Every structure is written in C-alpha cells, then in structure tokens.
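Dissemination and training. As part of the outreach component of the grant, students in the summer workshop were shown how a complex can be specified as a set of sequence lines and then modelled as a single object. The example used during the hands-on session is reproduced here so that future cohorts can follow it. Participants entered these lines:
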Amino acid sequence: MNVVVYVPGDSSALSMGADAVAAAIVQHAAQGRHDVRVVRNGSRGMAWLEPLVEVATPQGRIAYGQVAAADVPGLFAAGFLQGGAHAKRVGPTAEIPYLKKQTRLTFARVGVTDPLDLADYEANGGLVGLRKALALAPAAIVEEVVASGLRGRGGAGFPAGIKWRTVAGAVADQKYIAVNADEGDSGTFSDRMVMEGDPFLLLEGMAIAGVAVGATEGYVYLRSEYPDAKRALVKAIERARAAGWLGADVLGSGKRFDVHLRMGAGSYVCGEETAMLESLEGKRGVVRAKPPLPALQGLWGKPTVVNNVMTIATVPWILQHGGAAYAAHGVGRSKGTLPVQLAGNVKHGGLVEVPFGVTLRELVVDYGGGTHSGRPIKAIQVGGPLGAWLPPAKFDLPLDYEAVAQGGGMIGHGGIVVCDDTTDMASMARYAFEFCATESCGKCTPCRIGSTRGVEVVDKLVAGDQRDKQEKLLRDLCDVMTNASLCAMGGLTPLPVLSALDHFPGDFRKG
Amino acid sequence: MHDRVPSGSGESSPATPAQLAVIDAAIARLVDLPGALLPIFHAIQDELGFVPHEAIARAADALNLSRAEAHGVLTFYHDFRRQPPGRMVLKLCRAEACQTMGCRDLERRLRDVHGVAMGQTAVDGSLTVEPAYCLGNCALSPAALVDGKLVGRIDAARLDGFVHEAKARGGAR
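and obtained this result:
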C-alpha cells in the first residue's frame, strides 16, 4: 500500500536540510521496495523541530522531529512508515501541544496540504470563499469583511473592510489590488510561510478583493530575499490560470482577475505602502506624501487596495465562514486571530496563530519556552525593527492593538524577537538608528539626517561624554523624528531607541 | 551604516559583446511591462550577476526615461551590483533576531579570520559577502542565503565550511 510521507519544502525546513532528508527517504524506499509517496508540504511552524517529517498512518499523521538524512536508514529499520518508535518520534502531529492549543484559521492548511496541488487545496476547503463571493453582490463582500473586524496585518492595523469600501466607491476605468509581500521586519515570516505553504490562499484572497472592489489586475510585490516563495508563487499563478480561476473568466463567473508577481530589490522602506507603489511603477522606492490615499490614487494613479499578505490570506476564511464567525474571536477592537511569529533567542520558535487577547507571557514563555540559550529573558521586541523593546515586567500585556499601544509598544506584523540577558540594549538602540540610516528613502530630513545623528548621539551617550546633555539631545531628536517624519520608518525608529533607554538605562551608562 | 555598499559600487569595466546581448535581450523581452525598469535590471543581474554600466543608457532609451532616472533607480536598490561578484555570494543576515543569536560574531569572523568584510569580495574572487536585513528564518537564526539557498543555525564551523567551499571552486571570473 502507498504510504504518504511529508517532508516540508518550506524554506525554514530547507535551511535545516529537508531536501537531503527527502532524497534519502526516496532512495531508501526504492531500495527496500517500499511504496512511498513523498509530499513536500509547507511547515507546521514548529521551527525547532525542522525538518519535521510526518507519516500518514491509519491513526493519523505521526511526526518525527529534527530528522537528518543520516537518520533515515534507522527510521526505516524502526518501521516509521507504520509510525514506529524511534528517538526522533514526536508523536501524533495533531496532539503536539504547541499546535493543538492554537486557533488556526488563516494557517488551517499550511503544513497539512501539498501547497501546489489544486485538488488538495479544494479538498481542504479551498475556493469555497471565492465561490461564495462570486455569488454575492460586490458590496456584500465588502460588508462581510467590514463585519469581520479584520485589520491590516502589515502593521498599521487599519480596518481592511473600510479601505475596501473606499476603493469600491471610487469611480475609475481601472483599479488594482496590490499585495504587500515585502515582509521586511526582523522576526517575521508568516507571509513567507503562507506563500510557500499555501500560495493558492493568497491568490484566492486577491481574487475576492478584486471582485469586491471592481479591480481586474492584482500585483504581488515580493521581497527578493524570498527566492523559495517566488518559486512557489510563480507555479501557483500558472496553475490557477490554467485551471481557470485566474484570468479572463474567474471560475466561469464572467469576471476578470489576473495576478502579476513583481520582485523587490532589497529595500526595507519599500514595505511602506506608497514606497511600494513607486517601486511597482519601476521607480526609486521613495515615500509619497498622503493624501491622496492609495485607495483613491494608488498604483499608476488608480484606486488601489494595498493590503499585506496576511490580511488578504485571511479573507477566504472570512467569506467561507462569515464575518461574524471571525469577529467572534479576539478582544475589544482586535478581532479574530493573529499569526504570531516567535523568533530570535527563543527555545521553541515558530508560528503561533492565536486569538487576540492572549498575553505576551503566554506567547513567549508558554509557547516559546524561554530562551534558546537557557539564560533569563532580558527583553522582547514586538513588531519588528520599529517596535518597542519590552522587559518581562510588561509581559502581562494582552495581544491587542490598543492595549499594546497603551503599554508603549506596537503589534506591527506580529513578530516577537526574544533576547537573553547578554544582549546590550544600548547597542540595539544604536542599531535601530543605523538601520534607519541604511534604509531611509531620503525624502524627509528627520529620517534621513536624524538617523545618522542618532547613531552619533548614542555613541557619545554610551561613551559618557556630557551624559545628561546627550540624553536630552537624544530625546529631542526622537521627538522631531516621531512628529515630523513622513512615514513610519523615521516616525517609529524612536520606539526601539527610547524603549531601550527607558527600560534599560544601565546599559547606556557603562562608560 | 556605511557598509551597505553593494560589493563593487564603482562602475564596471566596459561590457563585452555577450553582456551587451544579454542586456538587449532583457530589454526587448520586458520593455512592454508596466513599470519595466526593475524587472529589466533584475533579469540582467540574474544572468550576469551584476548590472553593467551600459544597461543604464540602453534601458533609459528603451523606456523613454532620462539616464539620470535609470541611474537613480539602479543605485537606490541594495540588491543591484555594479560589478561582478565572487564565485559564491553569501548574504548574511544582520537583523535583530539574528543578532540575538550571534550574527555579529559571524560577521567579525568573516572579516578577521577570512579577510572578507561585509560588502566586499575576497581578493581571490572566491566569495562576496553582502548584508541582508531579514531572510524570514528568524526562528532558526543566525541565517544566511548562500547562492540563493537559505541556511539556518549557522555557527563558526558551518561558516568556515562555506568559505572553504568557495575557495575550492575553480576558475576565476
């Protein structure tokens, strides 16, 4: 009988040798005349267990973690094709607490299915959302998204439905859907995991958005640092076109929607929506002043929905199950779930999709298991390089846009970077300015000049050169950057700087 | 902040006829795309490993842009190289998650032990080291892209392995 063995093709798994494991399994199966079919699935998101090999058995899928190619002969000898005992056996995948406790809506299929198999996609709930959308009036699709309470997952947290309403209401000969796949924040990889592990989901979400607002063309702006996601998306777009659910006649509805993939070129600021539009137009990624809003004058001056990958990838679930079902998860004005990414010096790093409202402690300690090094946690940075450094005293904050903002931070794209007590927070503050200087688009002075001056002031402060005066100057500089920068790049760089200074003043006073 | 200079930021030596053919073919293939300039530069670099100086004028002419505009685009983006890279390109992540797992030590090791500083190419042409700011492998830091392949949990030994592999590759460019 044909046994299905899953070896992730996700780039995180590849980075730990998954290709060699898959090749070894194929080779040993052939030698032992075992009838094995290897499926390259997405990642389950338990990064510390990669490569995580699963075997489909009558009792469900059995997981083996941290499998190396050298383990493969032993696994066959142990009868792993029947789920046999072995030192690397983790147990039934569905029973792993890290996975079992999660609420996987957006990530329901990631790691479960063959990412590029359309039949597998449909057999597991794919295209239900798009079919429902095609049966609705466009305005009703928009209102379903409004009702879900879904907010932009790229960082700003703006209600997606409201943005769609604006674009839907605009009158123009052409409208666009522009998906921001320039996932540049350190400590984030949820977009990448979806694009590699369930790329049809993104395309389905884009098609729903297109039908809802009357856009016929979609662009995905993908960062060049993701070559594996590029390969997956290129194939997924080809197959979706061939199957007739992208192109001139979406699923026989008579409606047109097509998707084009464009690559970034190593610029962080191009993750800012207007810089991304400039870059899509083939120009320097320089931020535009707002207004006009991209919803009214976006790509090539036309009304454009600009949404992050996570936002768009959540839309099919909302159409499938209803906006109210999505809004039933979460707290306050933070509805639904957030795919949180645990990163850095963390024992159990990976993807954790949970309803809003869980505390940072649950995420970092219960899921994350503390640091990889085993040393005490010193701080976590929530929300990428423009997010605040929070000490353990703040870990009772709930995952909630407003609560985290009140606590001096921001959720951003949901990345959490953990560092242990050996990390020098003054050097992290300096790095925040350094990164801003490297990546500033140069349009506005507070960001372009302020970032370079910021590096110098931190250096002087740490060196103990007129300390009080330097600290006053640093705070003054941060005030200018916060209030006078054109976009979040310069405007939020003070967040990691000042949070490091406020919570860890001792690190700035070694001189 | 000064070391995010692409390896070889100066202009390249004059393009060969074969390189000019690559440039012209990329332009001919992509000129009608909306916003074609980035796709054209990408296509040229994918094939040649860098974007020769001549591409600026040729792309500008084809797209009815000024050479200043095309030059401005080419130099805005960190990815585009103006000179050929070494036989192996190692993009080492420098972002926060990788810093918490020791990527700065790896960067220092490349510079002090192997003599290749960030943004530079080894004198024997074996290896180019470039900075990356997040490769999306932040739960398995430190990470790098080695000739486009993602690697995780890099330590000194694995890093040395890549340097030796690069040196062992024959043939100068």
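Residues 445-463 of chain A form the longest helix (19 residues). Students were then asked to discuss how this feature might be tested experimentally.
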